[in-house]
Structure formats: structure tokens, C-alpha cells
């Protein structure tokens, strides 16, 4: 092994001599490079190889290349690159090849090699890397796309890119992304050839030796890709993705027309098809020239385009009366309403249209639950409070088992300070099952704290402890404890704490809150703190190291504390903690003893 390392270090000598001779590095720096290289070589020649050692070696060589590049720029010296950089680049490629050969499954390692090749313009090497990587990771479409894009955009080879896409599709015959990128590539190739032909014609050059096929120039190759893909990939999403790509090129009108016809024929019942056809009315209007038009005329044109969109949507909800179709319609209306405009008339028209669509969807019982929130927000923002109350009530009739919908209704009533809030809470609790009602109870007690008497709020807290599930009651106990301390003082909260401790389960924050309350008292008693810590440790002593450490700190820092108790607390912690927590506790306890915690 030593002989091999010595040989590799000797191979470096010519480049290092050149670095010193041309004044890029000093003799001292050359020695430092040799020492570092020697240490790195020994690490990658061991029997038990580690990926990190190869990464560190590669990173060192890359940093060296960057340093040489900066020093060349500083002194203005650009010769001897073959003897210096070429040697280092060759070594980095060799390191990458060894690493990827050893850890073939590490995609990130392959991508690092790809990035390095691109950075240093190693096209020939990158071609080899892609070839090897795709042979191993042929199951990853993204890598095929990356390689094909490089062939098309960097090497300007549409044939190689096409060949890669065809190979990829043999492995992934139903991958939408592959077909989309293949489609895009063929259109890019057609556009490139169209530009070349145009430039030759403008220069009045003879096109005899150049073969520009009319089929390729008109995007026929892309059309073939689209038709092949349409047979294998079903779904309107793919059709829309391909259409959006085709729109980027100005010679694809016939192709776009074919895709649109396919959409309307095969996916006439899909809401996304109707959504696209409706929104297309906006685009068609915006394509018309708008120069020399007044602001009023522009507003009128926008309003007309929106009316045409809504006419398509109205037809859509009659043809496809589903919740998803109404969602598309409402989403469009909300998008237009939220667009900024200086025209109050247009804004008012958009508001009226949006509210009307919400009402129609609700009347047809097809308004999705999630959209009721946006409807209520719109009504409240528009100061239509009575209508908001009415809608909120209707929503809870439709979705009587939904906690979120009841929260919406209660939020509206609370915001408007209505008198029937308590009645609504009672109705909500009656309809919704006990499991999952925690958000309703927390909202109820928070509202009660600011509205009702202390007696009513306390009765509500007591009721919530019995009405919620054991797991949810934990949160109510914490809130109850905090509210009692704020409104009843220390003695009352201490009695409540003792009472609540009779019924499990508890949370750690429940005990920590009581410990914090005790520490806020002027006459903070260590006896009480010990009681709270002991209760907490009975519940969480086997799983929480910080609790033990806080107990020890308290004994050490409190005026009434007994430092001699720390030994027994430590012993108990070692017995009670589970698994790796013991080691964690010992480390933190050592830091505590040395004053670093």
C-alpha cells in the first residue's frame, strides 16, 4: 500500500514543480499540498473504505483548482494548463470513478460528478458518466431527462437526445414527465431549425447541402410523440401539460388545435377540461392588440372577457354538476376578485359574481366543505353579517359532524358578538362525537373567559374534563390550571392541582406549569417543589432526562435545597431511565458538575 501511495505522490511532482516555477505557489505551499495529499491518499487506500474520505479528497482537489484559477487571474498567467489543471482534473475524475464504482446506489455521488464535469467543461468525460450512471440507475426518469437535456442544450445534438428519450421510454413506457420533456425537445429542435433556415435565407445562402425537412420544421415529430403518449397516458392533466408546452412555440397552432379537440372529445366530463376552456376565453381576449385604448375601454374589455369565461363555467356546471366543477368555478371567481383594479365598478361586479356563484353551489348542495370558510370571510369583509350567520348555520346543517365547520360558525357568531353563542356551542357538542371535540372546548372556554362570570367559566372547565377523551383532557387541565392561577391565586390553584392529580393522564407541561407557579411566589418552598417534581417523575421519570437534571439543579440552587440529596436523585435516575437516555443523562450531569450546563 505504501508503495502505491508513494507512486501516486510522485505522479504529482511535475504539476507541483510547474506551480512553483511559474510563481502560482511558493515552496512552503507545495510542501503543505504534499503533506495533505499524503494524508488523504492513505485514507482512500485502506482496506475498510469510507465514502466520506473520497468526498473530502475530491473537495480538497476542487478547492485546489479554484485557488489556482484565482491566482492565475491575479497575476495574469494563463499558460501551462495542460501540465497543471489537466493533471488535477484527471485525478478528480479517477477519484469519482472509484467512489461511484464502490457506492453505485448513491445518486448524489453521481450527480456531484456530473456537476463537476459541467463546471470544468469536461464534455467527453460527462458523456461517459451519463452512460455509466444510466446503465445502473435506469429506473430513475429524472436522470434520463437530465442527460437528454444536456445532449440537446449543451452538445446541440438532437439525435443523441432523441435516442436517450427513446431508450428511457423503453424502461418507463407510462411516465408522463418523460413524454412531456421529449415533446418539448422535439419542438425546441424544430424551432432551432426554423431559425437556422431563416438566417440562411436572409443571408441568401445555398441550402443544397442542408436538409431541412418540412415535417420537422412544422413540429410533426412532436405530434407523433403526443399521439403515442396519448395512447398510453390517460388523464386530462397530461393533456393540459402538453398543451402548455405547445403554447410556448409560435408555430404550433395546428398542434394546439388537435390537443384541444382531444381534450374536448375524450375528457368532456372532466372539470379540468371545462376549467381550461373557460380560462382560455381570457387568453383569447388578451391576444388582441390593446394600444391606443382608454382605461374605461380596457376595463370594459376585461369585464367582457370575464363574462365570457363565466358563460363557459355556467355551461360547465350544468353539464358536469359536481363539487369539483363548482370548486373550479369558485376558484376562478376568487382569483379575479383578488386581482387589483382601480375600477370600483369592476371590483363590485366581481364581488357580486363571486357571491352569486357561492350561493348557487350551496343551493345545489355541491359546495365543498373547505370553500365555506372562504365564503364566510368574503361575506364578513363585505359587511354582510346577517348573510354570514345564515350561511354558517346552513354549513353546519350540511356538515353536522365536522368540527371545523362548527368552529367556522362559532367564529362568526363570536366575531359578531351574537347572543346565541352558548346555544350554538351546546348544539355543536351534541352533534359532534366526543373524540375530536377538543378544538370546540378550547374555543368555548377561551370565549367564556372573556365573556362569562368566573363561576360559569369554572363550571365549563369542570364539564370539559369529563366530556373530552382522556388524551384531550390533558390540554384542558393545563388551561384550567393557568386560568385558575390568573383568576383565583396561588392557594386556589394548589388545591386544584391536588384535585386534578387524582385522574390520569397528565402532560409534562402540566407539572412544569405548577413548578413555575410555585417559583413565582415570594415564599417559594422547596418542600412544595419536591412534591411537584416527585409527582412528575412518577409519570415521566423513565423517559425524560431534563426533568431529573432540573430537580438536581433545584436542590443545588434553592435556599432551602439540600445538595446532599443530589446523590440519591442521581442514583434513582440511573435506575429509572431507559436505554440510551442513561448515557445522555450521564453526559449532561457531568456538564452540570463542571459548570458547563
Summarize the structure in short.
This protein has 597 residues and is an all-alpha fold. Helices cover 76% and strands 0% of the residues.
Word description of this protein:
The chain has 597 residues and is mainly alpha-helical. Helix 23 packs across helix 24. Among the domains are: 103 residues; 64 residues, no CATH class. The protein has 29 helices and no strands.
Task: Spell out the key features of this protein.
HAT; single chain; 597 residues; 0% strand; mainly alpha; 76% helix; rRNA processing; UTP6 protein
Uncertain residue ranges: none
Beta strand count: 0
| Cα-atom radius of gyration | 36 Å
* Oligomeric state, counting identical vs distinct chains: single chain
The main pleated sheet reads as: none
- Mean pLDDT over the full residue set: 92
Strand content: under 5%
Task: Please count the helical segments.
Answer: 29
Note the gap between the termini. Answer: 47 Å
**Helix percentage:** over 70%
Overall morphology: flat
Structural category is mainly alpha
What string gives the helices and strands in order?
HHHHHHHHHHHHHHHHHHHHHHHHHHHHH
GO biological process, one term: maturation of SSU-rRNA from tricistronic rRNA transcript (SSU-rRNA, 5.8S rRNA, LSU-rRNA)
Keywords: Nucleus, Repeat, rRNA processing
Pfam families: U3_assoc_6 (PF08640), UTP6_C (PF24892)
Family: Belongs to the UTP6 family.
List the helices and strands and how they pair.
Blueprint: H1 2-21, H2 27-44, H3 51-75, H4 85-102, H5 107-119, H6 123-136, H7 141-153, H8 158-171, H9 176-202, H10 214-217, H11 220-232, H12 236-246, H13 253-266, H14 271-286, H15 295-319, H16 323-338, H17 344-363, H18 369-381, H19 385-398, H20 403-415, H21 421-431, H22 438-451, H23 454-467, H24 470-500, H25 508-519, H26 526-540, H27 545-557, H28 566-576, H29 581-593
Helix pairs in contact: 1-2, 2-3, 3-4, 5-6, 7-8, 7-9, 8-9, 9-11, 9-12, 12-13, 14-15, 14-16, 15-16, 16-17, 18-19, 19-20, 20-21, 20-22, 22-23, 22-24, 23-24, 24-25, 25-26, 26-27, 27-28, 27-29
Amino acid at each position: 500500500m505504501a508503495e502505491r501511495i508513494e507512486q501516486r505522490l510522485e505522479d504529482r511532482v511535475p504539476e507541483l514543480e510547474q506551480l512553483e516555477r511559474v510563481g502560482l505557489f511558493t515552496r512552503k505551499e507545495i510542501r503543505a499540498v504534499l503533506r495533505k495529499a499524503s494524508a488523504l491518499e492513505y485514507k482512500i487506500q485502506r482496506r475498510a473504505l469510507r465514502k466520506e474520505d473520497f468526498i473530502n479528497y475530491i473537495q480538497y482537489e476542487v478547492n485546489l483548482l479554484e485557488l489556482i484559477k484565482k491566482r492565475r487571474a491575479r497575476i495574469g498567467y494563463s499558460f501551462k494548463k495542460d501540465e497543471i489543471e489537466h493533471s488535477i482534473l484527471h485525478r478528480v475524475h479517477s477519484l469519482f470513478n472509484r467512489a461511484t464504482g464502490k457506492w453505485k446506489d448513491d445518486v448524489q455521488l453521481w450527480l456531484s460528478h456530473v456537476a463537476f464535469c459541467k463546471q470544468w467543461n469536461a464534455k467527453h468525460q460527462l458523456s461517459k458518466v451519463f452512460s455509466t450512471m444510466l446503465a445502473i440507475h435506469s429506473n430513475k426518469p429524472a436522470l434520463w431527462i437530465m442527460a437528454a437535456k444536456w445532449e440537446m442544450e449543451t452538445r446541440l445534438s438532437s439525435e443523441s437526445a432523441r435516442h436517450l428519450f427513446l431508450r428511457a421510454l423503453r424502461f418507463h413506457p407510462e411516465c408522463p414527465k418523460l413524454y412531456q420533456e421529449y415533446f418539448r425537445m422535439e419542438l425546441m429542435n424544430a424551432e432551432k431549425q426554423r431559425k437556422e433556415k431563416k438566417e440562411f435565407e436572409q443571408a441568401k445562402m445555398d441550402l443544397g447541402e442542408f436538409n431541412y425537412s418540412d415535417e420537422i420544421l412544422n413540429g410533426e415529430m412532436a405530434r407523433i410523440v403526443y399521439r403515442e403518449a396519448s395512447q398510453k397516458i390517460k388523464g386530462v392533466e397530461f393533456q393540459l401539460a402538453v398543451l402548455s408546452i405547445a403554447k410556448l412555440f409560435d408555430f404550433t397552432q395546428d398542434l394546439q388545435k388537435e390537443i384541444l379537440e382531444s381534450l374536448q372529445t375524450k375528457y368532456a366530463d372532466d372539470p379540468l377540461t371545462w376549467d381550461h376552456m373557460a380560462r382560455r376565453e381570457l387568453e383569447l381576449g388578451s391576444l388582441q392588440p390593446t394600444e391606443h385604448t382608454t382605461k374605461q375601454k380596457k376595463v370594459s374589455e376585461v369585464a367582457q372577457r370575464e363574462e365570457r369565461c363565466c358563460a363557459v363555467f355556467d355551461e360547465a356546471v350544468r353539464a358536469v354538476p359536481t363539487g369539483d366543477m363548482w370548486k373550479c368555478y369558485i376558484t376562478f371567481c376568487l382569483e379575479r376578485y383578488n386581482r387589483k383594479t382601480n375600477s370600483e365598478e369592476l371590483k363590485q361586479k366581481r364581488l357580486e359574481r363571486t357571491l352569486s356563484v357561492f350561493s348557487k353551489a350551496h343551493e345545489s348542495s355541491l359546495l365543498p366543505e373547505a370553500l365555506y370558510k372562504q365564503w364566510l370571510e368574503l361575506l364578513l369583509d363585505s359587511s354582510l353579517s346577517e348573510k354570514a350567520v345564515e350561511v354558517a348555520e346552513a354549513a353546519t346543517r350540511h356538515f353536522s359532524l365536522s368540527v371545523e365547520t362548527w368552529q367556522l360558525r362559532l367564529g362568526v357568531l363570536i366575531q359578531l358578538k351574537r347572543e346565541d353563542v352558548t346555544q350554538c356551542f351546546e348544539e355543536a357538542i351534541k352533534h359532534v362525537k366526543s373524540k375530536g371535540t377538543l378544538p370546540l372546548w378550547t374555543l368555548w372556554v377561551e370565549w367564556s373567559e372573556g365573556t362569562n362570570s368566573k363561576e360559569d367559566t369554572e363550571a365549563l372547565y369542570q364539564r370539559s374534563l369529563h366530556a373530552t377523551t382522556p388524551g384531550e383532557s390533558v390540554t384542558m387541565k393545563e388551561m384550567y390550571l393557568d386560568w385558575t392561577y390568573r383568576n383565583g391565586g396561588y392557594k386556589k390553584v394548589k388545591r386544584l392541582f391536588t384535585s386534578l392529580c387524582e385522574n390520569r393522564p397528565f402532560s409534562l407541561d402540566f407539572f412544569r406549569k405548577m413548578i413555575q407557579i410555585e417559583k413565582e411566589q415570594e415564599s417559594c418552598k422547596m418542600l412544595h417543589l419536591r412534591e411537584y417534581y416527585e409527582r412528575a417523575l412518577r409519570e415521566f421519570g423513565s423517559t425524560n432526562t431534563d426533568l431529573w437534571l432540573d430537580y438536581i439543579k433545584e436542590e443545588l440552587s434553592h435556599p432551602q435545597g439540600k445538595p446532599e440529596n443530589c446523590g440519591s436523585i442521581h442514583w434513582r435516575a440511573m435506575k429509572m431511565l431507559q436505554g440510551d437516555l442513561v448515557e445522555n443523562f450521564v453526559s449532561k450531569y457531568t456538564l452540570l458538575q463542571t459548570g458547563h450546563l
